[in-house]
Amino acid sequence: MDLETRVHAEALLLKAARTYGVQVRRDEVQQHLRHDHYGAALAEWASLHLTTDNLLTPDELAMATDCPWPRYSVLDRNGQVDILANLHDLSEVQGVTEDDIKLAIDELRRSTESITKQSETLRHQQDALSRLVRKRAENDARRRDLDLDWQSKSESERQRVAAEVEAASQSLAFRISDLEEQGTQAGSNLNGTIGEIFRTDDKLLANLQKLGWELEQPDPDETSKLDKLRETCSRLVKITVETVRARLDTLYLDTLVQAERSGRVRPSTDDEVKALEVEVESLHSEILSVAQISVEQQYLEPALQTVSTEGGQSAMRTSNALQYIDKCLDYLLGRLDRIQGRIETHLSHQAAAASLIATAKSEMAVEILPPMKQPSSAAPVSIFPTSPSKTNTPARKRSNTVGSHHRRRSSGVIDEPPLDTLMYTLSVPSSVSEGAQGRAQIVALSKILEERWKKYDELAQSAQETFEIGALAQLNDIRLAIQLVRDSVLAESPFNEPRLVDPEISGSITVLAADVEGAKDRLALVENQRRDRRSEKREEFIERWG
Asked: Quick check: 340 and 492 in contact, CB under 8 A?
């Protein structure tokens, strides 16, 4: 609203108040004209209706309020009789008969009855408007009380939830610090334990390597002893053979000499000598094998048996050593497998703890916005709403004829029927209440009601879909987080499901699952409530106008 319009409306309002004796201050008029809600409407109404063409002068008002018989004297006293007489030529005016007077009296009586009925109708409308204003004021007061009640409950609930969230955040922060400290300490302890185990294994492997080197080298003394024994036995066989041959030759020669000396032996022929030589030579060949067998049985076989006994003991010792080495290596491999399983379990726990810690930190990092502050007092609502069909219609000029007694009286209150007020409150177009009657009006209202219901259903469906999409996204995120935690926990576990080392993490997972089930239950409850929801305005409209 521009300044010129506001100044013009202020002048019209102050002039009308002074003219009709209404006590009003300039600052009050300015305050109402500057109001954000109805200031522009008040200025527009004053510009349209508080003009000289629409307002009665004080004399005209006095004439309208007095009885009709002394009206001529009032006109004569005011000097209006001569002015009115000059307006018409009295010679052209026909004489008034008694019938005309009766007709005029009847017409005046009918006009009086019509005015009385109209006054009664206006009084009823004013009473209805007063009741409507009073009802609206009561509803506004109850609504304000309900709003204040709801705001106080919401604030207390918000404070309670904020306190619970703060306590849970502090507890979660302590738990996170404990988990991080436990993870760091467990990592250092694991590194120390693994280092100690590896050092022990290295010592054992070094000892096994030394033992293997000792088993791979043959005994040089044993080999030299066997070679020396075989050489000695071969010399002994040779000496024994030569000794036996020498004894045999000596014995044979002695026998021949004794036989020759005794003379009892006849001379031998050449054939006998050759046969005897052959026999002696055969004995020489048999002496070598017999001597060799004798020496082997007497000396070499016991020595070899002794050496083989000692070699068997050495082989047994080597076999035992190899079995010991094999068992040690199996033990080391088994322990490495167990250590690998423990390390993988530890890493799985660490990954699960890190994932939970990251999720908790991201949730704790979300800033909780404070609630929007509601204005302390709502803008005052105009008690007399202006109908659009009437504000856009230019004011009707009144005629200057004196006989026009049906002029519209101008005042500060616009008379609105209760039905128009209700239609304006429900945002129903004025064409429905003015242009249609009876069945057509019912059909139009039904169509508007159906459109409102469709719009309400669309809004409800949109809100439901938005809520379901958000809830589904959160449920998918929670389900994915639980699946990741479960997969990390069940990794490398072919048998029963393992339990987490920290029972509090298991409790957190259980709480998450319970929250998911609670969200599902709330979602189902909202869907049930959505089906049973009814419109309060529709029920009120049907109860009042049905």
From this structure: no
The C-alpha atoms of residue 116 and residue 410 are separated, in whole angstroms, by 18
Please provide the size of the chain in residues.
Answer: 546
- The DSSP-derived string for 30-54 is HHHHT-TTTHHHHHHHHHHHSSTTT
Residue 470 is which amino acid? G
Q: Which of 54, 34, 5 is nearest to 412 (CA)?
A: 54
- Indicate if the pLDDT at residue 160 is higher than 80: yes
* Domain carrying residue 528: 438-546
Q: In angstroms, rounded to a whole number, what is the distance separating the alpha carbons of residues 175 and 170?
A: 9
Q: Which of 310, 338, 366 is the last residue of a domain?
A: 338
The torsion angles phi and psi of 364, rounded to 5 degrees, stand at -70, -25
Of 388, 401, 417, 332, residue with least CA distance to 121: 417
Amino acid at residue number 324: Y
Enter the tokens of residue 45: 């109404």
Instruction: Please check the confidence at residue 63 and state whether its pLDDT lies above 70.
Output: no
CA dist 108 and 102 (Å) reads: 10
Residue type at 145 in one-letter notation: D
* pLDDT tens-place string over residues 21-36: 778 888 888 888 888 8
Confidence of residue 85 (pLDDT cuts 50, 70, 90): low
- Close Cβ partners of 232 (under 8 Å, ≥ 6 residues apart): 299
- From 318, 338, 358, give the residue that closes a domain: 338
First to last CA, the chain: 41
Number of domains forming the structure of the chain: 2
Q: For residues 23 and 13, is the Cβ–Cβ distance under 8 A?
A: no
Whole-model pTM over 0.70: no
Q: What angle do CA 314, 319, 323 make, to 5 degrees?
A: 145
How do residues 436-494 score in pLDDT, each as one tens digit? 566 777 788 888 888 888 888 888 888 888 888 877 887 887 777 777 766 666 655 55
Residue closest to 22 by CA, chosen among 63, 74, 53, 58: 58
Which letter does DSSP use for residue 429 in this model? -
Quote the crossing angle between the two packed helices 26-33 and 39-49, to the nearest 10°.
110
Q: Is residue 310 part of a domain?
A: yes
- pLDDT of 203 over the 70 cut: yes
> What secondary structure does DSSP assign to 269-323, as a single string?
PHHHHHHHHHHHHHHHHHHHHHHHHHHIIIIIHHHHHHHHHHHHHHHHHHHHHHH
* pLDDT at residue 161, as a whole number: 86
In one-letter notation, the amino acid at residue 28 is E
Token digits for 516? 């998911």
Asked whether residue 332 is assigned to any structural domain, the reply reads yes
Q: Does 174 reside within a domain? A: no
Residue 247 lies in a domain: yes
How far apart CA 8 and CA 163 sit, in angstroms, is 57
